[in-house]
């Protein structure tokens, strides 16, 4: 990801700003918990005084928020939070943004559903949260202003306004956002290039700044219609971003990179649901989106100039029909189908020292039609035991014209079986076996540039098969009466058609690389989630919440024939959040710590490693009045650094002829973030 400028706060644009830390323990009586559905009323969050539904969701014990994946179609894209029992019909308007627009006062309860429940679409997950909104006439709104003071002298400001109104069973929502934000992966620091024997070839100082603008308008309307209920939502989002990197060489001269990316996203979605009797519900969903992207990447060095231009237009049309029927108090059935039409039109230009250079898959038009039928049965065999069995059948046709002309058809069967057993005493065991089929990324179909990362231009490949996986998962959850929650998950994935960078051969010689299918692989993951109240340690109203993930992947390298990890997979990820709520002082204090990470990418003649240090944020919220909130954050207290290590070879890296190792170590620096929020109604 070259630039990330989306906010974590309601009006903030700080890229690595950690989510609000959890509040004091939320404890519910055991009988409800043993049924697999735990309902948290607003009173459970009272001491923390959350402002939005998003704040409340983040405070759920034993729950890790996931806003979903950017995939085509609607299945699997909605994240792990439902709103009134339904996933959002939106993609560009992210799930966290939707939850931030729901005031905490408008939430009747939040249900934590573990293992499944009749009538609830679990979206292929074993645990989801369901935000149930209260029905009450009236209007509410909020206005927020924020400023981010960066240590390099930049002051980036943002404003946001939102409103919700309900009248005679009709609900209206609107939101406006306009503001700038930084990219904390770039900053200032040294760069050193070493030769194959360790000699210093280049020593320089890098000055890098990046950021972007978010100008978004979103809205939605819900209304009764013909015995059912209709919801229509739309969004217009303009997100320009840029990066400028100046590399001053110690021996004189410089290297200079400038990158711009202008993305315009438009979407329109609708859902209509209607009861066809006391036990049957019919739901119809339609969705349309348009994404236009213009990318410019220029690189200059002594005797060298590269210019890369990409214009890309992507459209998606989706329709989905679902029939749900409750066969008995313990048995429910779901049947449905989804159809989608996707189109990508891409035009690329690349010049080297003023001369045009042809790229594979530079100018292409790709069209995909995809259909899926599905069915699922949920059976509550007895109190505390729930089983779900599902089957999906997906067929698709992909055609490409332009630089690459091809047409192919694909078909996959995707079974799923899950089991959740509440054993008493706050214990639950969840098991899942499923065949997952990933979606092809249209960005892999066309040529692209990694200018901010390496200055390299990468070829595209429309002739890809989606990655498949047989996934086996086991999760054990223990909830104690004092609010402590421990969840441990083991997940094993047997992969087929792994997508990674693969060499392009011309007459038996590797000349470039592009996304390709490498064959079989494996991924093993262990995840631990802990919620720990600190009252017994003398910190009344204090809580520590954290999660750690250990990941191991493997695939056979197409160049060396040896087993290696899959590109872009982080072996370790972790985060910890501490909060101290002081209701008498109308104050919340806390600290968020996001662990460092390491990513590695394998290309034809290069191995690139990216390392990021630990990100630390100390924050405080003061609420002098019920309708006014002041939040101050001290960001990046540890002055996190981000390293890029490039091991570049003379030819294909399988020849083991190292040309040089280039190490760039940048520090973003500390920052102060201030936000003021005023609510109405």
Could you characterize what this model shows?
With 681 residues, the chain is mainly beta. The protein has one domain (30-680): Maltoporin, Chain A. The chain has helices at residues 30-34, 53-58, 95-100, and strands at residues 37-40, 81-83, 107-114, 127-133, 138-150, 155-167, 170-182, 188-194, 200-225, 228-249, 254-275, 280-301, 304-328, 331-352, 355-356, 364-382, 385-402, 406-424, 427-437, 448-450, 456-458, 468-479, 485-496, 499-506, 509-517, 521-533, 542-556, 563-564, 572-582, 587-594, 597-602, 606-612, 615-625, 628-635, 641-649, 658-667, 671-680. The chain has a 22-stranded antiparallel beta barrel. Residues 1-34 have low confidence and may be disordered.
Question: Can you lay out the helices and strands and say which pair or pack?
Answer:
Layout: H1 30-34, E1 37-40, H2 53-58, E2 81-83, H3 95-100, E3 107-114, E4 127-133, E5 138-150, E6 155-167, E7 170-182, E8 188-194, E9 200-225, E10 228-249, E11 254-275, E12 280-301, E13 304-328, E14 331-352, E15 355-356, E16 364-382, E17 385-402, E18 406-424, E19 427-437, E20 448-450, E21 456-458, E22 468-479, E23 485-496, E24 499-506, E25 509-517, E26 521-533, E27 542-556, E28 563-564, E29 572-582, E30 587-594, E31 597-602, E32 606-612, E33 615-625, E34 628-635, E35 641-649, E36 658-667, E37 671-680
Parallel strand pairs: 2-4
Antiparallel strand pairs: 1-3, 3-4, 5-6, 5-37, 6-7, 7-9, 8-9, 8-36, 9-10, 10-11, 11-12, 12-13, 13-14, 14-15, 14-16, 16-17, 17-18, 18-19, 19-22, 20-21, 22-23, 23-26, 24-25, 26-27, 27-28, 27-29, 29-30, 30-33, 31-32, 32-35, 33-34, 34-37, 35-36
